From TrEMBL:
Residues 41-92 form a coiled coil. One of its GO terms (molecular function) is nucleotide binding. This is Disease resistance N-terminal domain-containing protein. It comes from Rubus argutus (Southern blackberry). Residues 11-102 form the Disease resistance N-terminal domain. It comes from the Eukaryota. Keywords: Coiled coil, Nucleotide-binding, Plant defense, Repeat. The keyword Oxidoreductase does not apply. Pfam families: Rx_N (PF18052). One of its GO terms (biological process) is defense response.
């Protein structure tokens, strides 16, 4: 029982970390001017704020309600996915910054062999 409450507290802290990443300079610079992405980021913020509003209550109710416990498990996975996405955005933003500053050292290799990963145009 105590571990479930601690797990819920961890989820609240992790949600705050996702908010911090979402509004980091790298992410904001990367999405600047990309309307589709800005709309998605705004929707993500609204969703996360809504989740945060009910999270405390859900953390208490998970002890006696298995459906709430399952929901919190699914929420945890969704937050991990959101964090992964934000990490990918930050990585792409840093890649674009490095390429703009130093040029692409991989462009010759990619031209010769092709790229195995899809990259966003900088």
């Amino acid at each position: 029982m105590a571990l479930e409450v601690v797990g819920g507290a961890f989820l609240s802290a992790f949600l705050e970390e996702v908010f911090d990443k979402m509004y980091s300079r790298e992410v904001m610079d990367f999405i600047q001017g990309k309307k589709f992405t800005e709309v998605l980021l705004k929707n993500l913020k609204i969703t996360l704020l809504s989740v945060n509003a009910v999270l405390d209550d859900a953390e208490e109710k998970q002890i006696s309600n298995s459906d709430v416990k399952l929901w919190l498990g699914e929420l945890k996975e969704a937050i991990y996915d959101a964090e992964d996405l934000l990490n990918e955005i930050k990585t792409e933003a840093l890649r674009c910054k490095v390429e703009a500053e130093f040029g692409s050292s991989t462009s010759k290799v990619e031209a010769e062999f092709g790229s195995s990963t899809s990259k966003v145009q900088c």
